[in-house]
Amino acid sequence: xxxxxxxxxxxxxxxxxxxxxxxxxxxxxxxxxxxxxxxxxxxxxxxxxxxxxxxxxxxxxxxxxxxxxxxxxxxxxxxxxxxxxxxxxxxxxxxxxxxxxxxxxxxxxxxxxxxxxxxxxxxxxxxxxxxxxxxxxxxxxxxxxxxxxxxxxxxxxxxxxxxxxxxxxxxxxxxxxxxxxxxxxxxxxxxxxxxxxxxxxxxxxxxxxxxxxxxxxxxxxxxxxxxxxxxxxxxxxxxxxxxxxxxxxxxxxxxxxxxxxxxxxxxxxxxxxxxxxxxxxxxxxxxxxxxxxxxxxxxxxxxxxxxxxxxxxxxxxxxxxxxxxxxxxxxxxxxxxxxxxxxxxxxxxxxxxxxxxxxxxxxxxxxxxxxxxxxxxxxxxxxxxxxxxxxxxxxxxxxxxxxxxxxxxxxxxxxxxxxxxxxxxxxxxxxxxxxxxxxxxxxxxxxxxxxxxxxxxxxxxxxxxxxxxxxxxxxxxxxxxxxxxxxxxxxxxxxxxxxxxxxx
Amino acid sequence: xxxxxxxxxxxxxxxxxxxxxxxxxxxxxxxxxxxxxxxxxxxxxxxxxxxxxxxxxxxxxxxxxxxxxxxxxxxxxxxxxxxxxxxxxxxxxxxxxxxxxxxxxxxxxxxxxxxxxxxxxxxxxxxxxxxxxxxxxxxxxxxxxxxxxxxxxxxxxxxxxxxxxxxxxxxxxxxxxxxxxxxxxxxxxxxxxxxxxxxxxxxxxxxxxxxxxxxxxxxxxxxxxxxxxxxxxxxxxxxxxxxxxxxxxxxxxxxxxxxxxxxxxxxxxxxxxxxxxxxxxxxxxxxxxxxxxxxxxxxxxxxxxxxxxxxxxxxxxxxxxxxxxxxxxxxxxxxxxxxxxxxxxxxxxxxxxxxxxxxxxxxxxxxxxxxxxxxxxxxxxxxxxxxxxxxxxxxxxxxxxxxxxxxxxxxxxxxxxxxxxxxxxxxxxxxxxxxxxxxxxxxxxxxxxxxxxxxxxxxxxxxxxxxxxxxxxxxxxxxxxxxxxxxxxxxxxxxxxxxxxxxx
Lengths: 504, 504
Description:
Oligomer: homodimer
Mean pLDDT of chain A: 96
Number of strands of chain A: 3
Distance between the termini of chain A: 74 Å
Largest sheet of chain A: 3 strands, mixed
Helix content of chain A: 55-70%
Structural class of chain A: mainly alpha
């Protein structure tokens, strides 16, 4: 019997990883520039460059000899160091997901969503659902077909839920959202019945953009980002990306009439960037770099935005930063007033502006409509009606137009059906981390009050960040919290917090 | 006899061009970000990504089957449209230049200059020639060896002169610099003997950086750039690049104590960007995109910086822009005073700050020292002495230290021996364009005075810009001016201009 020597297969794997890294790096810079600085007329060439690089990445990964290398290495996992073993597992999964869809159909789909994104943008501005409608049907139809390629035995929507958050399905999310609804719906009703709301008066006024950008840096510095490994850019829709652990991007925006929006956008994006900076640097040039899933990524961003950023304890250090940049406008505000203002819970129309309590209901509505589209029970033409019915039913608000209704989010035009639930799930993961930290003796509120987040970051870095894509979400949660995901941490948190704030 | 059908070879050529385009695009964005926004800790990963992408470009171009495709197409040039014929010629030359150097030696050299660039940077700050010295010797030695691979029959320095400016050699530059010296040296002596200099007093003061960036945009807009196809970034050393004709970058800097520096940097970089925006858009995804040579590129930047920007006629519209942004500091200045101030001719130590008259002497000094290094008559340890002797001889100035001497420029650390002469040559090309325009009836001064550069741009676009890399420098000059390059246009221009200003 010949003994297998993995040396040459490992060399092939390392060479492949470097080529994939170079494409991720290039596409990361190209996308960041596209969203932040590129001139209007630069879009077609950017699209062409991205299409070529992503097609090359697809070809590299799907090459038959790569399949053979991965198979041989997987069959001799005992000969591999941990990092290579994880790479083999993750690359094999990435490859299976890429290879199942015929290259030409993938390319057609890329063109479809690129066009749909443009159409959506114009449709939203013009409040014109009809122009976007055919794209929704075509995208859903294509995603259903692709789901069939990926796993013909499975429900197509389940396939996509699982793609955005490994290990999830309708059954999983149904249970989760039932728990959430059971908690949130009566709470929202009680808040509305109470008839009192915290005042926002102290936060009205004009906040100079240049000063707000300085504040943006202050905030991520307080949050604990390595500023020598971070770029901050300006864009319309905030986002975070990262090339290696020592190079993260945040792109954000400021509104001169709303300083709070900037503060919480930066806390949110800073959470994403902390995760990316915290991945084991040994994974930098491999497929293990980056966040493992959207849900885990959102669990970091929403952790810093909400569990830290909207806590009563953190109100003092956060407000102090704001007061330093805007002494005239905010000098008279006290931390408790700030805490109440940023936790004002109120049914509303726009998901991205929703408070922590009602947020999950915005997600439930999208989750339900996506299911109807994927099951064929509804077509795109039904969406505005379904949207209005559900906003009325869950939140008690009238949808005045599609711009503030089904056209508000960019996701569907980009083919991101199955993505929305990860936002709610990410929020819920965070409550469980927080409870676990406190159980283990982390003085969460004391640290927030002192503006010293280092021990909180250390906990997350050790349990979540360092692993990058090397651990799947379920394993991460189990490893971090000593138990599987449990939504009751989240519902308890919401109940305690909003019962107290509103004196219910 | 079988008839050759070029269809499949042309398809292979087009596919290669797209892959090369994607790499140029990616490396363009990566480099721009590296010079403008990347975080300090991002450098190693950026270097790795660039190394991988450039190695891939080298492999793509040097693949044996590409050589065969190019040979077959070149042998049937009569079957090709003009664009493909140019592509075959330019790609064949690019390929020959790439393939002659063994890949490993090329990679070692890339590492050497990358390290040397770093060492130079620190050496300049520390005024420490000794630490940089061994790199100069190693780079010269490597470049001599590479020249031998490229053309063993030719003098090594000639090989590199020709690489940076096709068609040049020591014989060519010796003639050119003799003409320049014959004109400039007595002029400089007369200016010095005159004992009078224009005053700079009106331009001292504090010029707010944010306002200077607004002025920077005003300037390139007046120059005529398509602002929807331009990005302006911030960097230490100004430069211009371009991805396609509809996407150019300018990176520049401002100094709050010196508004003139910003104005002329932007005019200079704007000239480069006009050239890039003016290349035939049909060349966008091919090797024909971009400027044909450094000399021709500098001829555009220095045309707008000097022939337009430092003309007496353009002083009024240019000063008006400056006054709009800085009414308090500059409101009292008149155009003639401004014209004199920006044409103050004075022997000095620093090339990049030199005036239009003495500039060429700074280049002559570098050209002479480079020849001594390449011929073996001098080693790096001799450079500070040679530098001091020549600055004393040509410009009459004492070199107080290497920081303001042989360490001032970045070029040698980057292996750009043979590059400096293109700066002087580019300046000289411009005088010939200007004379030709005027001869053909372009009202150069009238247009400058009116701030209407469109007819001047149209002339340059038609004769120079549109061709990209499809015409070599000699052919461009001949086509544009109806005669070969002739340095007497340049020497006449300098003589007339500075005789008048200084009343010689």
